[in-house]
Amino acid sequence: MKRLSIILFLGLIALGFQRCDTAPAPEVAYITVDTLLVNATGTQGTSSSKLNTLWVEQNGAQIGAFIPPCEIPVLAGEKQEIRIIPGISINGSYTQRNQYEMLKAKNFTWDLEPYSKRSLSNVQKTFTYNDNFTIRIVEDFDGVGLSFNRAPQSDTTLQIVDDAEGSYQHPGETPNSSGKVTMLPKTIAEFRTPEAFELPKAGANVWLEVNYKTEVPLTFGVIANELLQSLQAPVVTLFPNDHWNKVYLNLVTEVSGYPNAGDYNLFFGAINSTDDTATVFIDNIKLLY
Known about the structure:
The chain has about 290 residues and is mainly β. It folds into two domains: about 25-125, Immunoglobulin-like, CATH 2.60.40; about 135-289, Galactose-binding domain-like (Jelly Rolls, Sandwich), CATH 2.60.120. The protein contains two helices and 21 strands. It has helices at about 1-20, 250-255, and strands at about 30-35, 35-40, 55-60, 60-65, 70-75, 75-90, 95-100, 105-110, 115-120, 125, 135-140, 150, 160, 180-185, 185-190, 205-215, 220-225, 230-240, 245-250, 265-270, 280-289. The strands form five sheets. Strands 11, 13, 14, 16, 19 and 21 form a six-stranded antiparallel sheet that branches. The radius of gyration is 26 Å and the shape is elongated.
């Protein structure tokens, strides 16, 4: 009897397998992305960018986040609605990536043949700034004068240099001047905007885009101006690097953290604790909110 029960049990399992859904898997197509670019226009400053992540949606459903260069599987079919959202690393942290709402997402309607591959063209992979936000060019070092003043405790000055002295170069953009700070051993450098900016609070994102190259740790932050006092709030300290880099700094915590402030100055600074002379290069400081 026990043997019969086992046989019946195994028979039911086999029957269950036969009744499983045997529908074929959905057919897919592939989108190939090698890089992501930005096209700044008019008074929006440099087109320099470091977009390192993209989010993909299909027909309103999220497919996932991808790091270019990449090949993205999507469902094949006619009139497929594809949405591509550019993303960045927050404060230069590789592990903290976020959709960058300051740029417009790209929307496409494509007929995707099964197992076909579609590569984004230069136009399709180039993003433009979102008209719903404000862009302020704080300093690009290409005009007359400077938008940063030397702080009282600073041991050095901020100079404008050209490409002969290592200024930042972006293809197709001229002139190519940058800011340079030369720091003797055991010195401090700090610079602040004389202009104070009225910025949105209550958790609204405020971004600062910067190109930089530095031999010492470089700090950026805000100065919150309340009625009876001004409070300095560092945002991030960037590690030294030997090549020009682009960073996207999120000021939301520091700006919204001082709800009683009427406005905010921006600052950057560094400490050279070494026994050698060090240099800091900076360019294309862009405030977005």
